[in-house]
Amino acid sequence: MYTYQYLLDFTRSVFMKMGCSEEHSETIADVFLAAELRGHASHGMIRIKDYYELWKSGRINVNPLVKIVHESPSTAVVDGDNAVGMVAARKSMEVAIEKARTAGTGWVATRNSNHFGIAGYYAMMALKHDMIGICLTNANPLVAPTFSISRMMGTNPIAVAIPALNQPPFVADFATTPIARGKLAVAEKKGEKVATGFVQDKTGKPSDDPSILKAGGSMLTLGGDRLHGSHKGYCLSSIVDIFSAVFSGANFGPFVPPSVAYLPVLEKKVGDGTGHFFGAMRIDAFQPAAEFKSKMDEWIETFRSSKPAEGEERVLIPGDPEREAEERIRKEGIDLVPAIRKDLEVIAKELNIDFD
Amino acid sequence: MYTYQYLLDFTRSVFMKMGCSEEHSETIADVFLAAELRGHASHGMIRIKDYYELWKSGRINVNPLVKIVHESPSTAVVDGDNAVGMVAARKSMEVAIEKARTAGTGWVATRNSNHFGIAGYYAMMALKHDMIGICLTNANPLVAPTFSISRMMGTNPIAVAIPALNQPPFVADFATTPIARGKLAVAEKKGEKVATGFVQDKTGKPSDDPSILKAGGSMLTLGGDRLHGSHKGYCLSSIVDIFSAVFSGANFGPFVPPSVAYLPVLEKKVGDGTGHFFGAMRIDAFQPAAEFKSKMDEWIETFRSSKPAEGEERVLIPGDPEREAEERIRKEGIDLVPAIRKDLEVIAKELNIDFD
What we know:
356 residues, three-stranded antiparallel sheet, 10 strands
């Protein structure tokens, strides 16, 4: 078990040794550790190695100039200058929040970025400003459109954070596939089968084999098959891709660059890097803030008191599981599996940082 | 078979006889017929009776003053004055488009409205202005959150329309449930079973009986069950509800008023009427319009050329099925089933309008 603070300091040191500024390293460490706290370890410490390898192969800019390249009163396009994704994303969300201050809402599309960790982090940045936060990102292609076997889209997540008064905020943060890529990887490592509705083989037949992705298979969109609404998951994932990439001038769909160094740089590019999309909406651009937040309390209390199905204890509000994970993990500490610990030991040794 | 023009004129006459202005009646007829043309008959002529009955029981305002009650440079809240939904919705989307002209984007939350037909109609209003259009609405409660048996949400649709250059526009318009309520009703009338994943019984057990909704059952969110991501459908449906109702001051979740006169007015209200949410985003607030639209052509061509699964002929782009339906129906005419024809005959007779 590691304390939150220990891993935060360690992560910051890793990125500083890679040449990132102290400010950027703090942002990066904050997002990695937020993923761990919120119970999304698949986007936490396990990903440090990916960035380390990208850096070693010269595929990341540790000294980026993230800047606005186009704007209107309520919008901007940000060029991430091939930064570590967290750096480009945090700056972009700050621009969205600034725009919202004067225009009521702010909308920022970001190109030339990289994997940014958990989308919910940026959406939640809006909360303390009495704003609603929104964050979308595309990701490297693993998912097939309905009726197709081609890997055209990432697991393209959507995050929306909405403040309340006495209740904790409403925070939705979910991939537009039935399950996350990380959970398939875990099942694969354990040699386990998965339920149908998650992946298909290279001909488009349903499969329960998580390793099928290495044999020409692909992930399915939310809904699973056409009968159960996979075309709606395809719509969602497409919208995330277009908002993240076509709005910004990043690579879309199958051209999104890989976020790991062991996959080669793609031959064809249709834009710059990975794309994200951010939104900030001032509550009082719609309703007096106190009134809105009190109404959100009522919404949350109403939904939390819905009747559980037989065998279920309670009905959750989006954000409940992550908040409860955070309370627990802050107390108990963060557990790293041996494989990740070993990766971090190697990195620490190579960079001459303490880690134990 | 009826021609488009015949049913358009008839529908306009019905609403004019009910006391709506010529302008409002034209809007209402235009939306009803757009649903028929786009192959969504469940939102077309079949719904005229519902409005007629609401009008007869004095539950609709045919002479409304739809007005902005709160605004910022990029946002507004519109009070629909209990208008026919199409009237409140069209005006609201016009406000969003006007806001976008000056602020880059425009966002309008609407309260005190009613059922507005197909969400895609309003999203598509943005296209000819070189804008992206967005439309959400809540609806009367039939859908249970994950782990619950309480009917807390409507089938809360999401529509997003994005212009292209030589390709037809990208138009997604979908309920946040695996299938539409109308399709369950059709199966029920035919005495057919449905696939599991659509509805559950009053204890929360999966059911294949579409009539279960009349026995305390409920519809499931997109994803179907927790394992297959129903919590993501619950997130989506919640977001639509909050944006439509909490932003605007309309009724949320279980308090959304019924859109048919045979269901009583609800005892408790937490706001005014039904709520909608509209967005308009000027393309050139992000990219030069020609460049953006040409990139959308490339996006569409790339996705349309993805490889079909075995047994499938082609991969569709959101909006393809509706556009193809429209081409066919404009040529062949609109077919009305006997039950709907009979309803319309009764209305025509009572209002002293020709219909045959």
